[in-house]
Amino acid sequence: MNKSINPALIGAFVLVSMAMAVVAVVYFGTSSYTTDSALHVAYFRTETSAQEVGAPVVLQGVKIGHVTEIEVGFEHVDTSFYVRVEFITRPSAVLLPVGTQRVMEGETVAIIQSLIENGFRARLASQSLVTCTLMLELGFFPGTQVNLHTDDK
User: Fold this and answer.
1) What are phi and psi of 122, to 5 degrees?
2) Which of 10, 15, 85, 95 is most deeply packed, by most CB within 10 A?
3) pTM, to two decimals
């Protein structure tokens, strides 16, 4: 079979392939947290060597977010280092009582302060004993010290 090569057909194939690649990148590259997400920051003075970007954030054993950034900072006052962990959560993953879904920004701050006063904290927990990776666990841990930090970022 000796057929001639059709340049228009090859060009169409290339264009369709490129369009499919772009669609795949957009579809698989977007996170499910982009439409309904809240950004938070936690600070740790403990060793976080097994903490990784992308690690899950869990509340009561349910994944509600993931770690987006990890940085090391230096505190001039007491010449010590701390670890800044930035994470995204999906507020819709937490069911609230009827009437509290729409909370004004000022009320949100008051609610968060109340939660912190009652022992709501973020802590690093073991995600896997095999790989020794960590996850960020949110919950009530009464009796733990509050370490609030201003974010200079």
Assistant:
1) -110, 135
2) 85
3) 0.65
- pLDDT tens digits, 52-62: 899 999 998 89
Contacts of 70 (CB under 8 A, 6+ apart): 48, 51, 52, 53, 83, 84, 85, 86
35-47 b/e (C-beta count within 10 Å ≥ 16 → b): eebeebebbbeee
Q: What is the pLDDT of residues 19-65, one digit of tens each?
A: 777 766 666 555 444 557 888 888 888 777 778 899 999 998 899 99
Token digits of residue 132: 């020794």
Instruction: Categorize the per-residue pLDDT at 69 as very low, low, confident or very high, splitting at 50, 70 and 90.
Output: very high
Pairing of strands 120-126, 80-89: unpaired
Q: How far apart are CA 112 and CA 138, in angstroms?
A: 13
Strands (E), the chain: 38-44, 56-59, 62-75, 80-89, 120-126, 134-140
